[in-house]
Design goal:
single chain; alpha/beta; Rossmann fold; pyruvate-formate lyase- activating enzyme; OB fold (Dihydrolipoamide Acetyltransferase, E2P); seven-stranded mixed β-sheet
Length: 462
């Protein structure tokens, strides 16, 4: 009989922040499991406590610090507390001053050394924190044989690259993650095929910037090449979703590839951040608003059923009422299917630091409310256009005679849901006739006829 594991061979892992962090957490869990450690759900039962932190904006940083303090306060003799992830990478030794009781710190660029860090902590002769924060950026998984996925039900996030080389003034990601490092196409496709064999229905491609995929590998159209390989070699995955596209880098070939392959969902997440050229220039973001209109026009012409999600920041330093009104007009004109918005968060060390944080919290909150109130009306109108249509819905849960799922218009965790009459098989894609619309969600009933994929051959101007 196998020997029972001791408490020192168990771990509790709390993952905070975005889906990219979730993938890193899953990868650490794989490494720990391969070394004989077992994950537990209660911190009190674990020998190793790990928080994969988020350090993107102020509220996320505070949530991470609070989680670490809570675990540190309840820590028992013999337990180890490790801070991993973005907050650790960015603040390092400063974090130990905020969280007494930390035993180890490991950054975003060396998560693959988590087992080595635990072993070093167990073997250390004196109780001082160990810092494992090498500066070199690396994807790291492929050389260790670790999957870079996070499976959630019938969906899986698949990380295709890490880091970012964009110069956005408000963003700390390049400071935290380093420059962009792409995974080889062969490695990404191999993981997709493994997920296909498991019966996964949705593959969500993620990176800090998916449109920059392959640049460091010498690929001019890396994302398009990756999509071509994925659709050819993993044909059994019915949905492939693209997240985090960078404006200005959505090419004609990418649009054509999305329109031509039924597996690639007619959905694109493209954070634009603002709609006024002067604000965008202060952000060090692409400021060609004509490009946005032209590209979205091309995409909607090629894919009439396209769902576009975007994200915006309000209250950026120097944002005037006129600039904010331009943002309102911009989003009203383009009518995004999904929209997320945040108030500006001052981040020391970023290129925007010299601008300060002059817009008051009251003005930021008021502008955020106005933007989201407008988007609620736009989203309702968009959803009402779906009534009478049949959409394929990936069922994710059920109860009380109803089932919950998502259509191609809804990315996991951040978008809306489709509420369907009846108990449907979880993990399956079911055709649903839409019968009702709310601001963010839809209602419907099972349709006996399969949903039709809207796509047609196109020719795009250069």
């Amino acid at each position: 009989m196998p020997k029972p594991r001791t408490q020192t061979q168990t771990y509790y892992l709390l993952s905070l922040g975005c889906s990219k962090n979730t993938v890193d957490s899953e990868s650490m869990a794989q490494l720990l499991g391969g070394s004989g450690y077992r994950g537990v759900e209660e911190p009190a039962r674990a020998g190793v406590l790990i928080v994969n932190t988020c350090g993107f904006i102020g509220p996320a940083k505070q949530e991470s610090v609070n989680a670490l303090r809570e675990l540190a306060d309840a820590k028992k003799p013999g337990q180890l507390l490790i801070a991993a992830g973005c907050l650790s990478q960015r603040y390092g030794i400063e974090l130990t001053k905020q969280v007494p009781g930390l035993d180890g710190i490991i950054g975003t660029r060396r998560w693959m050394d988590i087992v080595d860090l635990v072993q070093r902590l167990r073997a250390r002769p004196y109780p001082e924190p160990i810092y494992h924060l090498p500066e070199s950026a690396a994807v790291g998984a492929d050389e260790h044989g670790v999957s870079r996925t996070a499976v959630q039900g019938a969906s899986a996030y698949l990380k295709i690259a890490d880091g970012c080389r964009r110069p956005c003034a408000f963003c700390a990601i390049p400071l935290i993650k380093g420059t962009a490092v792409s995974r080889p196409i062969k490695a990404v496709v191999s993981e997709a095929k493994r997920l296909e064999a498991r019966g996964l229905k949705e593959l969500v491609l993620i990176a800090q910037d998916t449109t920059d995929y392959g640049h460091d590998l010498g690929l001019k159209e890396g994302l398009s090449e990756l999509l071509e390989r994925l659709t050819a070699e993993a044909p059994g995955i019915p949905w492939i979703r693209i997240m985090y596209a960078f404006p200005g880098y959505v090419t004609d070939r990418q649009i054509e590839t999305m329109a031509r392959h039924p597996q690639v969902l007619h959905y694109l997440d493209m954070p634009l951040q603002h709609g006024h050229p002067a604000t965008l220039r202060r952000m060090r973001r692409p400021a060609n608003i004509d490009w946005v209109h032209n590209t979205i026009g091309k995409m909607r012409s090629a894919m009439p059923d396209l769902a576009i999600r975007s994200t915006f920041i309000v209250g950026y330093p120097g944002e005037t009422e006129e600039e904010f009104q331009t943002l309102l007009d911009f989003t009203a004109e383009l009518k995004f299917d999904r929209l997320g918005a945040f108030t500006f968060s001052f981040e020391p060390g970023t290129p925007s630091e010299p601008l300060g944080d002059p817009v008051s919290p009251e003005v930021k909150d008021e502008r955020l409310a106005r933007l989201m109130e407008q988007q609620q009306r736009l989203s309702l109108a968009k959803n009402q256009l779906q009534i009478g249509k049949t959409l394929n819905v990936l069922v994710e849960g059920k109860g009380d005679g109803l089932s919950l799922g998502r259509s191609y218009r809804d990315a996991p965790e951040i978008d809306g849901m489709v509420i369907v009459e009846g108990d449907l098989p979880v993990g399956e894609i079911v055709p649903v006739r839409i019968t009702g619309a709310m601001a963010y969600d839809l209602t419907g009933a099972v349709d006996a006829a399969p949903a039709r994929v809207v796509s047609r051959p196109i020719t795009l101007a250069a």
